Amino acid sequence: MHTVSGGEVAGILVAVFWAILVSFLAVALARLAQTLRATTKLVADVTDQAVPLLADASTAVRSAQTQIERVDAIASDVQEVTSNASALSTTVASTFGGPLVKVAAFGYGVRRALGGRKEDAPEQARSNVIVGRTVPGARRGKRTRGKKD
After folding, report:
1. What are phi and psi of 128, to 5 degrees?
2. SS3 call for 135
3. How much is the pTM?
4. Is residue 127's pLDDT more than 70?
5. Cβ-Cβ contacts under 8 Å for 46 (sequence gap 6 or more)
6. How far apart are CA 139 and CA 149, in angstroms?
């Protein structure tokens, strides 16, 4: 019979541990390969779905750009109409405003001149205009709130 030496036992133990280590690494590599296949499939699916979504988003952005250009054109037209209305308002006011004020003032003056003095109005309520100032026709006998007339 052959006796087993210590070196042979150590070699067998190293070989067994090496075989176990290689087995664990093979299992880990198999699982890693499976994970990589699943990831590749997931990326392919996302790409297949993302491309149409990006095309739709691009179409939506183009449509929005077209709508913004339309709104900009409308805003420019509204601004031009507003400017024209303002110019027309200024023209009408300057053309008719001054003469209408003069006609109204003339009519008021004619009414006052033709109307004469009202007979039932008390003399105290009348006032005279002197060089742009209004002076009461007669002083009131009663003082109000301590102020002088």
Report:
1. -110, 145
2. strand
3. 0.39
4. no
5. none
6. 7
